[in-house]
Inverse folding.
């Protein structure tokens, strides 16, 4: 699933995405807050480590000061630690101090004898040029930090290593840690607030062109389908504006097509309706039954012409607006041609016209398209050929497989269309002079319908002369169905 696709609800409809400004702020501020929090933790840990190093150095100084008061006297290790020295230690460290001096044989020389011993696996500190180890322990129910220093002692009679331990409570360290934490969080919070404010103003500034675009659309008249100036928005939004311009151009074409259809339909239907009204008025004044029947037959003929015109107008309108809702699929064009031939065999026989179908046996004439529209295309070509071919003529319907695709060809022995008018007859309601003489009641829509259906299917339409230069030959070449 795409990260940028709108989520779908239970009924398949897209869920509204909400405010773009709010989404930008969330995607910018929330990750920033997370990064600042991680940075605050890192800074806090580094500060604590630095504070520990500083306090350990102070603790080591106290241990060294105490070690300077350890000596050997009369073969014994002694420690001269006055209370004044201990008070100075506590004043320097701002915490409670405990100490212990251990002799060469593990005996307690001075201090707190129950001070926790050095853990067996505690490594020596590499930060200082001294044999010192730092470790945490609990003493009298309080956590303490202890420095254990190995101090060489000697005189003329003996030599050895004494152990000096100085521990302090963690009150000062904890107070410093709290100050570091509060200061760090305060600075980071101020940083996040400042960045959030800047981001909010930046997002408002960046989205301002979109707001102007929205306002322009809201204030436009409904009839204004002109293009939007792409310079009004950022480069990243211009493809969207270009797509909107394309949509409005298609809407302009659709509106123009609808207006043209309404104008053409009203113009073309006005004549047969006026004729029907005139015939009806004449029939109302006629008393002779024979004359009345003749008028009624004339009304029936005019009605048939009006129905034929209305059907072709509706077909043309349906094609111009997307070809209807019939799904496209593989269509056997030879079968469609055979069906049309059977349907129009009666009017061909009535005029004494030889209607023939030629289809290559075994040839694959399958095309991809809408069967109803293809049927309409073939029917219009054959119907036109029958209408404009004089009695005793011939109409040939041919379906064949060619290298370029599937060929549909309708040739007749009628008056034909001069080469200079073949492009014009493809326009709605245009009729060549020769066709006017052969069929004055025509609509001029048949070839226009064929043109639109062929264009909808990506087919190539060509008009030419029939056999021996007589009549009209219409050729339509379809791309063969790739699935066959």
């Amino acid at each position: 699933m795409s990260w940028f696709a709108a989520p779908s609800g239970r009924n398949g409809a897209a869920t509204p995405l909400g405010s773009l400004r709010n989404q930008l702020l969330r995607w910018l501020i929330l990750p920033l807050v997370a990064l600042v929090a991680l940075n605050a933790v890192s800074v806090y840990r580094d500060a604590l480590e630095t504070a520990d190093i500083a306090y350990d150095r102070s603790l080591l100084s106290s241990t060294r000061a105490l070690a300077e008061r350890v000596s050997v006297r009369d073969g014994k290790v002694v420690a001269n630690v006055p209370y004044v020295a201990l008070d100075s230690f506590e004043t320097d460290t701002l915490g409670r101090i405990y100490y212990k001096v251990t002799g060469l044989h593990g005996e307690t020389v001075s201090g707190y004898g129950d001070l926790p011993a050095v853990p067996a696996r505690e490594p020596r500190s590499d930060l200082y040029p001294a044999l010192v180890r730092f470790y945490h322990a609990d003493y009298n129910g309080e956590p303490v930090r202890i420095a254990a220093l190995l101090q060489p002692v000697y005189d003329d009679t003996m030599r050895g290593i004494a152990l000096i331990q100085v521990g302090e409570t963690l009150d000062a360290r904890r107070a410093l840690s709290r100050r570091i934490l509060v200061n760090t969080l305060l600075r980071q919070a101020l940083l996040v607030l400042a960045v959030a404010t800047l981001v909010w103003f930046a997002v408002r500034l960046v989205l301002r062109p979109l707001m102007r675009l929205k306002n322009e659309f809201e204030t436009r008249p409904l009839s204004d389908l002109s293009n939007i100036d792409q310079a009004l928005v950022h480069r990243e939004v211009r493809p969207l504006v270009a797509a909107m311009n394309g949509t409005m151009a298609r809407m302009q074409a659709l509106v123009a097509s609808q207006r043209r259809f309404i104008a053409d339909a009203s113009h073309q239907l006005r004549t047969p309706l006026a004729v029907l009204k005139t015939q009806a008025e004449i029939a109302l004044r006629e008393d002779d039954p024979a004359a009345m029947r003749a008028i009624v037959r004339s009304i029936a003929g005019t009605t048939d012409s009006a129905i034929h015109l209305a059907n072709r107008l509706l077909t043309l309108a349906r094609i111009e607006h997307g070809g209807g809702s019939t799904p496209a699929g593989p269509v056997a064009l030879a079968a469609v041609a055979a069906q049309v031939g059977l349907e129009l065999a009666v009017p061909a026989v009535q005029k004494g016209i030889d209607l023939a179908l030629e289809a290559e046996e075994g040839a694959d004439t399958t095309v991809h398209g809408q069967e109803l529209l293809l049927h309409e295309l073939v029917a219009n070509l054959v119907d036109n050929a029958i209408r404009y071919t004089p009695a005793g003529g011939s109409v040939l319907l041919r379906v064949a497989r060619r290298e370029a695709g599937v060929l549909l060809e309708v040739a007749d022995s009628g008056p034909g269309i001069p080469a200079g008018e073949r492009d014009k007859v493809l326009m709605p309601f245009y009729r060549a002079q020769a066709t006017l003489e052969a069929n004055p009641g025509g609509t001029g829509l048949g070839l226009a319908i064929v043109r639109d259906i062929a264009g909808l299917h990506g087919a190539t339409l060509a008009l030419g002369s029939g056999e021996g230069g007589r009549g009209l030959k219409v050729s339509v070449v379809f791309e063969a169905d790739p699935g066959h």
In short: The mean pLDDT is 78.
